[in-house]
Design brief:
With about 325 residues, the chain is of the alpha+beta class. It contains eight helices and twelve strands. It has an eight-stranded mixed sheet with strand order 1-2-10-7-12-5-4-3. Strands 6-11-8-9 form a four-stranded antiparallel sheet, with no helix packed on it. Belongs to the iron/ascorbate-dependent oxidoreductase family.
């Protein structure tokens, strides 16, 4: 078995021009509102200026992170016929494995996707092999779901909304996990794209990567791609289409891609967090007024799934189709 998780130390010192924010969120739960406010301010600035940030001191245990990467690695190392048992053409399937995709953005990856919240509702559909997969990935999923609610409380507070604005919806909301396995790239080929530029549905994505390969570009970056370093113990957070909608355009979802790592195979685990599958997300009423008219139509994750098959030939961000002047 290839032990991908041991490579998490790699790339820790790799910073690009315009280095991405790394935020210590240990004081988000502080009883001192002034201490919390400073962290909220840092998160609000990162959301506005970069569309993403990394978090440390986040409360997700190192063992849960290492075990999740190991479980993913063990799954992808299984014989092809075992993994093929989860192959499915239906994008609505609760568990789906594929080595390519009809989504118009997969270039060189295999993936396993499944829902995770609430865990007891979904875990019985997860793979039973490797034997520890459900336990390891389940522990990680629960810790990441808890973190997502904490982070969203800070993000909506940074927008001037009540920190509890979405707590109930998120608690009962979507957690969609995508485990990605990218082959080692060729050093002679230059940058080889494993996953083409795209933005995610949902409010936020929390991503764990075994080694560098994720790159991001904010709408103010002029198309310049910034590598996201694999900082030991850190988790990467970026904004999704439904947060752009909720914020009525004050925040923008992040365009990102995956480049093949020329040193090794790479694994990433993306956890996408949003409202329940059929729940419509619209602009927060508090952020709509005469000077800031409503910019987006309501939509749900279900609507996004309906949109996906139409988005293969020429990729378009889902949120662009929701703009009220885009019809």
């Amino acid at each position: 078995m290839a032990s991908h998780h041991k490579h998490q130390q790699r790339g820790a010192a790799a910073t690009a021009p315009g280095a991405l924010p790394v935020i210590n969120i240990g004081r988000l739960g502080d009883k001192d509102p002034a201490a919390r406010a400073l962290v909220v301010q840092d998160i609000a600035r990162a959301c506005r200026d970069r569309g993403c940030f990394q978090v440390v001191n986040h409360g997700v245990s190192k063992s849960a992170m290492d075990d999740a990467l190991e479980a993913a690695s063990e799954f992808f190392d299984m014989p092809a016929e075992r993994k093929a048992a989860f192959a499915c053409a239906d994008i609505r399937s609760p568990v789906r494995y594929d080595t390519s995709s009809k989504d118009g953005i997969s270039k060189a990856r295999s993936f396993l996707k499944h829902y995770a919240n609430p865990l007891d509702h979904w875990v019985d559909s997860w793979p039973t092999q490797p034997a520890t997969y459900r336990k390891k990935m389940g522990t990680y999923a629960v810790e990441i779901q808890r973190l997502s609610i904490q982070l969203m409380g800070a993000i909506v507070q940074g927008l001037g909304l009540c920190p509890m604005h979405l707590q109930e919806k998120l608690g009962a909301g979507l957690q969609f996990m995508a485990l990605n396995n990218y082959p080692q790239g060729s050093s002679r080929a230059g940058d080889t794209v494993g996953l083409a530029p795209h933005s995610d549905i949902g409010f936020i994505t929390i991503l764990l990567q075994s080694s560098p390969g994720l790159e991001v570009t904010h709408h103010d970056d002029g198309g310049v791609w910034t590598p996201v370093p694999a900082i030991p113990g850190a988790l990467h957070v970026h904004l999704g289409d439904h947060l752009e909608v909720l914020s009525n355009g004050r925040l923008r979802s992040l365009l990102h891609r995956a480049i093949l790592n020329t040193d090794e195979e790479r694994i990433s685990i993306a956890s996408i967090h949003g409202a329940a599958i059929d729940e419509k997300v619209g602009c927060a009423e508090e952020l709509v007024d005469e000077r800031h008219p409503r910019m987006y139509r309501e939509s749900s994750f279900h609507d996004f799934l309906d949109f996906l098959p139409t988005n293969v030939k020429a990729y378009r961000r889902f949120v662009e189709t929701l703009k009220i002047d885009s019809a």
